[in-house]
Amino acid sequence: MPAGQHDRRTAFFYEHATVVFVGKSLTAIGGQNPIEPAALGKAMVFGPNMQNFAEITRKFVAEAGALQVRDKASLETAIAGLLADENRRRNWAATRSGSSRKPRRH
Fold it and tell me: What is the dihedral of CA 23, 28, 33, 34, to 10 degrees?
């Protein structure tokens, strides 16, 4: 599959998702890009392995713009909680509106 086609498919799923789990973050090392679902205002959950996006994921968690879980059981709990709480998801989207922007250089 050409790279551009994969990006469009991913964007399609993010747009239609209620909650997004950021892949390759629970068992693999590195994690996928969390900026894409954040920019769409999606409730976002990722695992402990976000080394490729460490700075932005720390910021999302610190600003209550995402949940970082440690294992499969906590992932299930986090997703169930977010699906059940529309107000929390909406508040997170508002919180992240500034977090997904690129940092300013001084």
Answer: 60
Return the DSSP state at 69.
Answer: -
pTM of the model: 0.81
Domains of the chain and any CATH numbers:
3-97 (3.40.50.2000)
Q: For 11-41, give the secondary structure using H, E and C.
A: HHHHHHCCEEEECCCCCCCCCCCCHHHHHCC
pLDDT in tens, 59-71: 999 988 899 999 9
The span from the CA of 105 to the CA of 92, in Å, is 25
Nearest to 18 by CA among 97, 81, 96: 81
Give the gyration radius of the chain's Cα atoms: 13
pLDDT digits (tens, 9 = 90+) for 28-55: 899 999 999 999 989 999 999 999 999 9
